Amino acid sequence: MDCWHCRRTAVGTCRFCGRGVCEDHANTKPFVLELFRANESMKALVVEDALFCGACKPRPAPVDLPELDV
Ligand SMILES: [Zn+2]
Ligand SMILES: [Zn+2]
């Protein structure tokens, strides 16, 4: 797999979109692994330095999918 930005060999895959990134273009970004309820408030389990390609635009919060609510 090659880097999305410069076509060099990728060292990893963006956690958010799956694009490949080389070490020069690898960024990190907090990634919400899981949401859970604790004491009546919602908490998020976050990976602080998930690999991020810098090309995609992940939303800061999960998007509601009401049509999947059955
Ligand atoms: Zn690159
Ligand atoms: Zn990405």
Offer a quick outline of the entry.
The chain is built from no helices and 4 strands. It is mainly β. The protein has one domain.
How many strands appear in the DSSP assignment? 4
Mean pLDDT level: 90
Report, as a whole number of angstroms, the end-to-end distance.
39 Å
Question: What order do the helices and strands follow?
Answer: EEEE
Question: Multimeric state of these chains?
Answer: single chain
* Class from secondary-structure proportions: mainly beta
Please compute the radius of gyration using only Cα atoms.
15 Å
Q: Order of strands across the widest beta sheet?
A: 1-2
Cofactors and ligands: zinc ion
Largest sheet data? 2 strands, antiparallel
Unreliably modeled segments = none
Helix content: under 10%
Helix count, DSSP H or I runs of 4 or more residues: 0
User: How does the overall form come out from the CA principal axes?
Assistant: elongated
Beta percentage is: 35-45%
Describe the structure.
The protein is mostly beta strands and 70 residues long. The protein has one domain (1-56). It has no helices and four strands. The strands form two sheets. It has a two-stranded antiparallel ribbon. Bound molecules: zinc ion (2 copies).
